[in-house]
Amino acid sequence: MLRAAGVGVGDEVIVPAFGNVEVAEAVTLTGATPVFADIDPATYCLDATAVEAVVTPRSAAVVAVHRFGRSADIARLRVVGQRHGLLVLEQGESEAPYDEIAQRRERAAYLDGRLSGVRTPHGGDGHTYQQYVVRVPGNGRPDRDAFARAVRAKGVECRVPVKTPVHRMPGFRRDVCLPETERAADETLALPVDAALTKREMQRIVSACNALGGLLQPAF
Q1: Is 218's pLDDT higher than 50?
Q2: pLDDT at 220 over 90
Q3: How far apart are alpha carbons 34 and 17 in whole angstroms?
Q4: I want to staple 181 with a disulfide (CB 3.0 to 4.6 A). Which of 18, 138, 186, 204 is the partner?
């Protein structure tokens, strides 16, 4: 898409650092330079205000990546794009059948109403819960990682969705201020929410997580 739009050497393309490295790699393959902007902490997608803050005369495009079943605010990003003459591209997630999405939403609602000690995701309109991502607040210790180990020890599968933001990776390392990206990388944990989960398995998730709630301190 970038090449078809004429993006190339000398151009800058604004992308998220929270997520997979492939987007930044695609930018470099065109000869352009990836520029990282911060995310909205509710959606984990590019924040339009943060995007506008990094626009330069070399900026040619923005790549908005939809994340975990939540969509980026494309309307606001297009307003920024029109204001600065930028192409706004989207990278979506794989579509799931409607019945599967409905079952994920049902399980997400169950967890929303019962989990304590973690911050449950902002549902928002149209959330498909590709991943059910909670936050384990940090207070100077690697609470999320300790929490994940303890939950796994109780038989609950979980995963860190983004272990290293792209702007910390070799080859893309940048001295930029991305506080929401950094915080999300340190605090987020994906819990099971797939349609195959049984009621007993859902109860096990809640029991395992809530038993650890007292280990956590609120984030300030």
Answers
A1: no
A2: no
A3: 10
A4: 18
Written as six digits, the tokens of 89 are 């591209």
Give, for 16, the enclosing helix (H) or strand (E).
Answer: strand 12-16
Contact, 54 vs 81, CB < 8 A?
Answer: no
CA 137 centroid distance within chain: 16
Taking the C-alpha atoms of residue 67 and residue 93, their distance in angstroms, rounded to an integer, is 7
The CA–CA distances, whole Å, from 41 to 30, 49, 57, 143, 201 equal 30, 13, 28, 19, 29
**E strands present in 18-80:** 33-37, 59-65
83 in Cβ contact with 72 (< 8 Å):
no
Is the separation of the CB atoms in 189 and 94 below 8 Å?
Answer: no
Contact 44, 65 (CB under 8 A): no
The pTM assigned to this predicted structure is 0.91
Contact (CB, 8 A) for 174 and 83: no
**Token pair 């994940």 in the structure block, residue:** 148
